[in-house]
Structures are given as structure tokens and as C-alpha cells.
Amino acid sequence: MKVSGRGLRAVRRGGLTGEALAPGDKSISHRALIFGALADGETTVRGLLEGHDVLRTAAAMRALGAGVERDLTDAGPVWRILGAEWRDPVRPLYFGNSGTGCRLVLGAAAGQGLAARFDGDQSLRGRPMKRISEPLSLMGARISSEDGRLPLVLSPAPLRGIDYRLPVASAQIKSAVLLAALGARGETTIIEPAPSRDHTERMLKAFGADLRIDMAADGRRLRLAGGQRLKASPVDIPGDPSSAAFLIAAATIAPDSDVLVRNVLINPLRAGFFETIADMGANISYENQRELCGEPVADIRARSSSLRGVVVPASRAASMIDEYPILSVVAAFAEGETRMEGVEELRVKESDRLAAIEAGLAANGVATASGPDWLVVKGRGGAVSGGGTVATHLDHRIAMSFLVMGLAAQKTVSIDDASMIATSFPEFVALMRGLGADLRQE
User: Fold this and answer.
1) At residue 162, what are phi and psi to the nearest 5 degrees?
2) β-strand 413-415 against 163-165: which pairing, if any?
3) Distance CA 323, CA 375 (A)
């Protein structure tokens, strides 16, 4: 189903049953395109997420000189990326709503000594870019903008390796610096005081880079020498745990449900949501565990569950930062309070996600409390009234989370706009309907 700019509403109808294939992981999809475009030779990618955000990165790679083609085979789409020496783009690189694509490409382009203008939609223009531009500037990059946000201009400049301690656990900052370091003079060392998703490190090694990783008293140290050339490598992308979370959450809270979501990435640095709902009493299990392109993968079975509130520690935030909206919906159906700590990053996502979560829950009869870096959801023990209309603020995760709520709430739950769901999960509505969900156009 193609979702228009109009809203959708979710109606409680019965249990969800069946199987679904998780869409390709968005984080790995961005990286596969960028690494393929930097590498010598042709990289073939299977399982690429063909959402709007990733397609913006594909377009940026073409604009920078790489060959990017999509072939349709009997086994599904195969993307072929022919690496090339990057060139200055003739037009601004436009990333729509994709913070990941924009930030990672900025690091890579700085490392290649390019001149380029970076821009995005209104939402992305409101998100902070200083966290990326500051370490790149320490390496010698010339980046200008009016207020540290988009649009920004990158000017050619030679980079040098630096020792850099990440101020927050952020895979985007880490990845941007590592991509810049490939083109820098000398060695770059990154000190990571708390773990964040490690897809860039895994992919650097798969593409032949000499990356050294050591544990030290002050954190995890990553050392990368500049001047290295990457070598093309095939990439098979596992299913996105952030997308699978919506299907699994729906099966957990909707009565009489039994759903199997196949091919889900269970990298420990991405599996915080599954760990948390298991702590809450969710009936979930990993089946057919295996490895795909160096990443751990499993099929996840989820059934209707009686849930209890828990405290989610700040140490888990980096492994589930995108899943707090759907976790908040799950928490609404639990007995007692669920407290989420260390979630200040949600204030600067596609929307102020903490504020959007609280407003959406309040509109559907669920009380909350919050501070700068914490959120408490006061669970209703399964008796969530629903009946509200949720303002999504053009945030795809807010939209999908409250549609999931409507499948188990006593009254219909509506969202004002469903168009942005395609940025990360274009198959969401079709997959949910295939499992028995009642989603109706407003």
C-alpha cells in the first residue's frame, strides 16, 4: 500500500498471527552505500532498505561520482556500487530527513577533500550538526554554517589524524570521524567511553581496513591510520531491529497474538529493546540463530504477554535509542511504572521525541512524567483507553508507535500524517495488515 499524506487509524480487531520478514537494517544500508562508493572495485549489496532516507544516500553517492545501480533478480533487488575517486558535486547534497546519511557523508567527504553544500528538509535543518562538525574541524576540515545546523558548506582542506574522546555515546559521531580519518594524514584515535553500535568498525574490517580496537581503563580505543584504500566486499544486510520492534511490540500487547519475525539483527549493541521487554515479562524467543556478514541474526517469535513496569538504565540507551517511542507504548500496557533513564538524545531526533511521546500517550489516556533526560510511563495494565489523535511532527517512529497502540487499545487511535513512515519502513502498513492488523485511511 502506498501511504498518502493523510492520516491513518488503527482499530483493535483481534490477534496478530503469521510470519514477516524484517526489512533491511537502515544503519547498515547507509554504510554499505558509502563504503562501496569509497572502495576500489564493485560492491554488491543484498537486502538494502529501500526507504527514502537510504535512497537519499544512494543519490549522494551518484552525485559524488560513484556508480550506483539497482538490478532486480529472482532473489530480490541487488544493488551494485562501483567505487570511484570522489568529485565535487555540481549541486547541493540533499538528505531529506536523514540525519545518519548526512552526518556520515559529511565525514567521508571531508576526508576526500571535497567542496560540497549539505542540506535537508525542515526537520533535518533543525537538528544539531556541531557534534559532527566540531571533531572534523579539529582534524582540519573547513565547515561553515550560520548556527551549526544545515545548510552547511564544506570547503577543501587537508585533514590530520587526531586523538578524540567522544563526548556522548554516538555511532554517528564515531563513524563520521572514522570515515574522515581514512583520508587524513597520520593516525586517528577515538576513545569511546560507552559502547555504541559498531557497524562501521565491522564494515571497515570487511572492506580491508587496518582498524585496531583495544580496551583501556578510559574506554574502548579505536586506531585507524590515514591513507588506506578500501577494497570492494559483498554485503548481505540483515533485518533492522528498530523496524522489527514494531511488529514484535504489536504481538506482545495485542491479545491472542503469535508472530514470527525473520532475519532480525541481534547485535548486542542494537538489542536493548528486546532485552528490555524480556525484563518486562514479554513472551519472546530467538530461533534459528546464525551469522550474516559478520553480524548475529535470529528469527524472533513474540506472543501476547502480561507485562510489568521496569527501570531501563541509562547504560542501555545507546543500544535502543530509536526504540523508546515503541517501548513507551508497550509500557502503557504494563502493570506499574516504567522509568527510562539517560534519554536526553530523544530531545534532538526528528522531533522532540520525549514531548511527542508524552503528548501522544496523554491523548490516549496514559499518564507520564519526565525530566531533561528521563521519562516515566504509568502503565494501565492492558486497559489503555485510546481514542486520541496523535500529532506525529513528521516523525516516522512516533507514527508507527501509536498505530501499534491502536491495535490493542479499547478505542481507535489515529495519527495525523503517515507519509513519513516510508523514510525507514515503506512496507510497514502492508506487513502489519498481512499479520491481521486493521489499519484504515483517514
Assistant:
1) -135, 165
2) unpaired
3) 13
Q: Pick the closest to residue 241 from 3, 32, 442, 23 (CA basis).
A: 23
Please give the span between the terminal C-alpha atoms of the chain, in angstroms, as a whole number: 14
Lookup result for grid cell 549493541: 269
pLDDT tens readout for residues 360-375: 999 999 999 999 999 9
d(CA 242, CA 260): 15
Cell numbers 516510508 correspond to what residue?
Answer: 422
Which residue reads 590515514 in cell numbers?
A: 226
Q: Are 62 and 86 in contact (CB under 8 A)?
A: no
pLDDT in tens, 222-246: 999 999 999 999 999 999 999 999 9
Side-chain half-sphere exposure of 149, counting CA atoms within 13 A? 11
Active site residue 322: yes
Question: Which CATH number, 3.65.10.10, 3.90.940.20, 3.30.420.40, 3.40.228.10, labels domain 8-24+238-441?
Answer: 3.65.10.10
Supply the DSSP symbol for 299.
E
pTM over 0.85: yes
β-pair type (389-390, 219-225): unpaired
Please tell me which residue in 299, 322, 395, 417 is annotated as part of the active site.
Answer: 322
On the question of a cis peptide bond just before residue 255, with omega within 30 degrees of 0, the verdict is: no
Q: 188 in helix, strand or coil?
A: strand
